[in-house]
Specification:
about 210 residues, alpha+beta, Helix Hairpins
């Protein structure tokens, strides 16, 4: 079998070159393309159904002198555009890092400043939530004097303004607790972003040092 392969491969190559030369006999060049079944074809013109696929231009000697890339799908074009936007964004961010900071300590200093701002907002939110809990406790104490919370036969129906205050306070308490959770997520994201900037800044400085 190895001996047969040594005979067949040169023969096939010669046949291909001969075909390309014959096809080019009608003109200056020949073309090579592959159909949907993976079969290679040669000719002096490309059939219309393969015009958008990759093809190779050959001279009379069967040597490649040109190549036409396959027409890209809308999905491929969109992905290339997305990748190019990401490259440009990274390039701009790299320039920002190198022109804004002189050392890792500069980045850490700004990070700590931003984190302290978030902690200040968190402390204010926690104090507000504590106040809301106090207000809610006072409202609930009042509510126990009225139906449906009181078991006294002579208990009156809860006043509308008290019921509204209870609902409003509960809703505000829920809102502030959600905001507090958002502060936690914001702090985690901030730490991650600054750590990524520190890693990238260190990498860029090393690259600059090796050039």
């Amino acid at each position: 079998m190895p001996g047969l392969t040594r005979v067949l491969v040169p023969a096939l190559l010669c046949a291909a070159c001969g075909f390309a030369h014959g096809a080019a006999g009608k003109g200056e060049v020949a073309y090579r393309w592959v159909d949907e079944k993976g079969v290679v074809h040669y000719g002096d013109r490309i059939p219309p159904q393969y015009a958008t696929q990759e093809s190779v231009m050959l001279n009379k000697q069967g040597v490649e002198i040109g190549r036409t890339e396959a027409q890209k799908t809308p999905e491929q074009l969109a992905e290339e555009q997305r990748a190019e936007r990401e490259r440009q964004r990274q390039k701009q961010h790299d320039a920002f890092l190198l022109t804004t900071y002189t050392s890792v300590k500069d980045i850490e200093s700004l990070r700590d400043e931003r984190l302290e701002q978030i902690r200040g907002q968190r402390r204010a939110a926690e104090q507000y939530i504590e106040n809301l809990h106090g207000r809610l406790a006072a409202l609930q104490t009042r509510a126990f004097n009225f139906k449906p919370y009181s078991d006294r036969p002579d208990a009156r129906r809860m006043p509308d303004d008290l019921a509204e205050d209870l609902v409003r306070t509960l809703n505000e308490l829920r809102t502030q607790k959600n905001a507090l959770s958002a502060r936690d997520a914001e702090e985690a994201a901030l730490r991650a972003q600054f750590q990524a900037d520190i890693d990238r800044f260190t990498e860029l400085r090393k690259l600059a040092g090796t050039r």
